[in-house]
Amino acid sequence: KQYGPFDLSAIPIGAYEPRWMMEAQHVSPDEAVRIHMDVQSKQSIGVHWGTFALANEYFMEPPFKLSQAVKNNLLNSSSFIVLKHVAQIYNVPTTTTFSEETPIPELGVETPQPEELRVELNRINDWNFNIFHIEAISGERPLTAITYRIFQERDLIRTFSIESHKLLSYLFALEDSYQQVPYHNKLHGADVCQSMHVLLNSSGIKVREKTKTFCFYYFLSNNKIKGRVQRIRDPGGDIRSSSTRCPPSRDLAILYNDESVLENHHLAVAFKLLQADERNIFSNLSAEQMETLRKRVVDMVLATDMAKHKTLLADFQNLVAAKKMLGNDYLMLESYDDRILVLKNMIHCADLSNMTKPLDTYSKWIDRLMVEFWKQGDAERDLGLDISPMCVRSPTTKDKYQIGFINSFVHPLWETWGSLVYPDANTILETLAQNREWHEASLAALTSSTTDNSSSHDDKQN
What we know:
Layout: E1 9-12, H1 19-22, H2 29-38, E2 44-47, H3 62-72, E3 80-82, H4 114-121, H5 131-137, H6 142-153, H7 156-159, H8 164-175, H9 186-199, E4 205-206, H10 209-229, H11 250-255, H12 261-273, H13 287-302, H14 309-326, E5 331-332, H15 336-351, H16 359-382, H17 397-421, H18 426-461
Parallel strand pairs: 1-2, 2-3, 4-5
Helix pairs in contact: 2-3, 5-6, 6-8, 6-9, 9-10, 9-15, 10-13, 10-15, 13-15, 14-15, 14-17, 15-17, 17-18
Protein name: PDEase domain-containing protein
Keywords: Hydrolase, Metal-binding
GO molecular function: 3',5'-cyclic-nucleotide phosphodiesterase activity; metal ion binding
C-alpha cells in the first residue's frame, strides 16, 4: 500500500511441493497470482522455476499451474507471464500433429512401399542395418520409422503408458527440428538410435532382475531420446562444430556458459517439445518418475560431448578392468554409477559407430561428413578465422584425419567396449580395422601420386 501499485513485479512460482514442507519458504502459482493482485502489479514475471529440481513438482509444471491460476482469477493472460527458456532461441517447426481420432500408420509413417519398409524394419537388430534404404522408403522419415519400431519392440509404449498419437506427434516435430545439413541430420540421429538399440542387446551386460523393469526400461527410453536428440538445429545455421568460435553460435555459448553448448541446446529443444500436451509422451509419469528420467537423459546426452571423451573413457576402462579382475563373464550393473557409466559409453559408441559399419555404408557417411566439414571451413575462412584442421579442403584431409581420429578416439573406445561384452563386438572391431586400412591405403596412394607429380614437375624444370 505504501509503495504500490507496481509497474513490474518478479514473483516466485516454483519449488512449492509438498505444501506442508514448502509453504513457509516458497509460494505456489496460485499464491503468486494472489500476490500479483495484492500489490496491484500492472505486469508480473514468474521467476524461481525451471532451473533446478528443488521440490516434488515436475520442474516445468509451474508455468502451467500459473496459467490456470491467472485464468481462474479472470485476469488477462498477458498480465502475468514467464520467460520460456528455449522459446527465445528456438521456434518449434510447423509439423504434422496426430490426435486420438487420427488413424495411426502401422509403421509410424505413411509410405507407398509399406511391405518393403516392414521387411527392412524387421532387421532392426542387425548391426549392418541399411539405414540409407530406410530413408528412401519411409517418406524421408527414418527417425520416426525406426524409433516407433524400437518403442514397439522394447514394449516401451506399454511400459510408460505412452499414447501412440502423442509419440508420433513428438517424433514428427523432433524430426522436423533437425537441420538439413549433409551429416549431422535426422538420418544420423536415426542411425545412433538404431545402433544404441543393438548395443543394448549385448550379452555381457546384466541388470539385477528386481530392477530390470523399473530401472532398465528407464535407461532404454533415455537412450532413445538421446538418439533422437542428436544435432537438432541451432540458430547459428549450418555451422556444426561444437566450438563456439563462430559468431552464429555465440548466443548459445553465452546461454550455456560455453559448457557442452550444442548438447545442452539439444536437450533444451527436446524437452521443450514435450511441453505441448499433444507431444508430451511422458504425461502419464509421476513428477518423481519424470525427474528421474530427465536426470538420466541429461547425464547421457552431455556424455557425448567430445571434450569429455578422455575422462569418460578412463573411468570406463577402470570399470572393465575391475570386471576382469573378478573373472565374471558379464558385468552386474547393480549401482547407479555403474549403470550410467556403461550407458554413457554405450551411447558414445553409438555416436561414433559409423567407422564400424561395412565399407559401403561407412564411405557414404564419411563423404557426407567431409562435405559438412568443408562448408564449415568455408564459413570460418569467410569470417576471417583460422580454418579448423579437419575442415581444410585438401585431397588428403579425409584420410589423414580419419586415421588419427580412429587411432586416438574411436579404437580405444570400441576396444574397451569389446572387452566388456566379449565376444559380441569382435566383428565390429574387425570392421573398424578394415576401414582404417582402407583410409591408410587411400592416403598412401594420394601421397604417392603427389610425390610422383612433384618429381615429374622437377624433371621438366631441369
